[in-house]
Amino acid sequence: MADTAADTAMDLDAKSPPSSPKPATTTGSDSTTSANATAVRSIEGWIVIVTNVHEEATEEDIQDMFGEYGEVKNLHLNLDRRTGYVKGYALIEFSTLSEAKAAIEGADGEKLLEQTVSVDYAFVRPPPSKTGAAKGGKKGGGGRARSGSPGARKKEESEGEEEGE
Fold this sequence. Notes:
The chain has about 160 residues and is an alpha+beta fold. It contains four helices and eight strands; from the N terminus they run αββαββαββββα. It has helices at about 1-20, 60-65, 95-105, 150-165, and strands at about 40, 45-50, 70-75, 90-95, 110, 115, 120, 125. The chain has a four-stranded antiparallel β-sheet with strand order 3-4-2-7, covered by helices on one side. It is elongated, with a radius of gyration of 25 Å.
């Protein structure tokens, strides 16, 4: 009897990946920004940033505007400590990529309390660089020139003297 239960559990586990939501693994054009950067899912969901939010906007105003695009899991509307007004941006979390994408496409450029808001993915991976040295380090040799440490300068000077002799 125990073997049957284990087999059933394995069958269920084997069947679950195809039914899991596809947007979490989507890396195609669905999750790219206008700058060709790829949207990245946070630990809990897809975060959208709304900028140029009116200083007197409330969480209810934001919820009303973005609730039509999907279930808002979380909403951060940060306030200025000194004035108590909204700082000008909001972070909205959606469960799925399709909801976040719908919010971006539907609300970007719309008016909220007589101010036009901009909406985009909050977390993005930059587009691949054309130089090939995207992972840091001194592989490409380009970038800004820096002076070496005193030890490195002495080493370079001594190498230069040896070559000149």
